[in-house]
Amino acid sequence: MSWPLRACVTMPLVGLASVLLSWSAMPAARAAQTAQQNRPDLSGVWTAYVEPGAPTFGLPRVKLPLTALGTARLADYRSIIGPDDSPGAYCLGSGMPEAMMFSGLYPMEIIQRPEQITIIYEAHNEVRRLYFGSKVIPQGDRIPDRDGYSVARWEGNTLVVATSSLKEQEDTAYPHSAQARIDERYHVFSDPKGTRVLEADWTLTDPTFYTQPFKERKRWAYDPHGILLPYECNEEAWLDHLQQLRQRHDAARAHTAAGDPQERAP
Amino acid sequence: MKATAMKFSAELMGALALAGGVPALAHHSGSEYDFRRMVELRGVVKDVRVINPHMTLTLVITDAHGTRTIAFEGQSVNTFYRAGWRPHMINVGDRISVEFAPRKNGVDGGFINGFTTAGGVRIAFQVPTSNPVANGG
Questions:
Q1: Using a CB-CB distance cutoff of 8 angstroms, which residues of chain A are in contact with residue B78?
Q2: Pairing state of beta strands A149-155 and A158-164?
Q3: Which residues 6+ apart lie within 8 Å of A21 measured at CB?
Q4: Running DSSP on this structure, what letter comes out for residue A125?
Q5: ipTM of the predicted assembly exceeds 0.85
Q6: How far is A124 from chain B (nearest CA, A)?
Q7: Which residues of A fall within a CB distance of 8 Å from B11?
Q8: What ranges do the domains of chain B cover?
Q9: pLDDT confidence of residue B54
């Protein structure tokens, strides 16, 4: 068959196949789009949710079921620090799960896109990125981090997040090993006053540091007028360093201007 | 790099104290301050830095013991901003009063939770007692 004739026969078939394929894909695409549209939009600023009679802050509500190794690592850490030593003093973020639990009264901002949810905790400008679907990279390619690497998916209206690739941390209210995994489940509801509340139920699983997984809960209130402020923390340290450099520079210049006595000697 | 200003996040401790008691152990220690008490003192600002993680203030005060300078630390710039503080509200030379949790060992200074500016504006960090949205954010 000559090329023009073959093209005349095959091209319409290809076109027909494309149409059929797109028809068959349409319901699935439409369903996915509908599901996307129906998902709760968590975007916006969320602040501490204060329940009547309950303190704004609290230490872990569970007794941490540490293993012998976890206990030893924590004791070793505590034996070297003073009462004023903490990562925050060095403008270092808390890491997960403390970043989520104890960011003080500072709010957090959520930016939601279909393929990624970004959470910014105002305290220390700590940022988490929750990746969906094709944005997720293989386990071996992830860089360990104090906030770990988070993979997310939707189960109906519940946002499900699995966080791993964490760093071992004793400098936190929830000490954990690098093998720890945190599973979070977020959902939104309205409280009796009509406030929009974001609730996270989470579980920390870490056989190296803990004899069993333990669960905690955290709530935030939606703040429609809320904004996040900058949290610059180590500028003073830099300015102090700059001042020292300036003093050294000025001293050296003064020394040069006065002249080196040895050079002046005949 | 170490933040030169402060050694811990006492915002948490102050909030804990105001919210109903400082726990025996927290990841940030504010152990040198007595957050169960708030003391007020008037003086002239010698130096002020409203920064993160915590503000610093040096005040020249005169009392029965004479005239001396006292160094304080306090809540973060973000916290004071939300309480109403704005840049240039406190300046060197201003006569202001500060509310602070004193040191447990009786040494001068403490952790500032609030202040009243030379213009009479009172800025104080407060833990919301009910839903912050219902309170207007």
A1: 106, 122, 229, 231
A2: antiparallel
A3: none
A4: G
A5: no
A6: 8
A7: 104-105
A8: 10-124
A9: 86
**Interface list for chain B against chain A, based on CB atoms closer than 8 Å:** 1-9, 11-12, 15-16, 19-21, 23, 25-29, 31-32, 49, 51-53, 77-79, 81-82, 127-134, 136-137
With beta carbons under 8 A apart, name residues in chain A contacting B130.
50, 52
Question: What percentage of chain A reaches a pLDDT higher than 70?
Answer: 82
Tokens of A210: 């803990």
Band of residue B15 on the pLDDT scale cut at 50, 70, 90: very low
Amino acid at A48: A
Q: Which residue does chain A place closest to B127, by CA atoms?
A: A56
CATH number 1.25.40.390 is the correct assignment for the domain at B10-124: no
- B131-134 — which CB contacts under 8 Å span 24+ positions? B131/A49, B131/A50, B131/A191, B131/A193, B131/A195, B131/A221, B132/A47, B132/A48, B132/A49, B132/A50, B132/A221, B132/A223, B133/A47, B133/A195, B133/A196, B133/A221, B133/A222, B133/A223, B133/A224, B134/A193, B134/A195
Cα-based distances in Å from A213 to A62, A64, A72, A121, A180? 11, 9, 19, 25, 10
Q: Tell me which chain B residue has its CA closest to the CA of residue A47.
A: B132
> A9: alpha, beta or left, given left = phi > 0 and alpha = psi -120 to 50?
alpha
Alpha-carbon gap, residue B66 to A108, rounded angstroms: 46
Amino acid letter, A239: L
Quick check: A231 and B81 CB within 8 A? no
Give B42's strand partners.
Answer: B97
Residue from the list A89, A195, A236 with its beta carbon closest to the beta carbon of B49: A236
> What is the count of residue pairs from A and B with beta carbons less than 8 Å apart?
130
Whether the model clears a pTM of 0.80, i.e. scores above it, the answer is: no
Please answer whether residues A251 and B18 qualify as being in contact, where contact means their C-beta atoms are separated by less than 8 angstroms. no
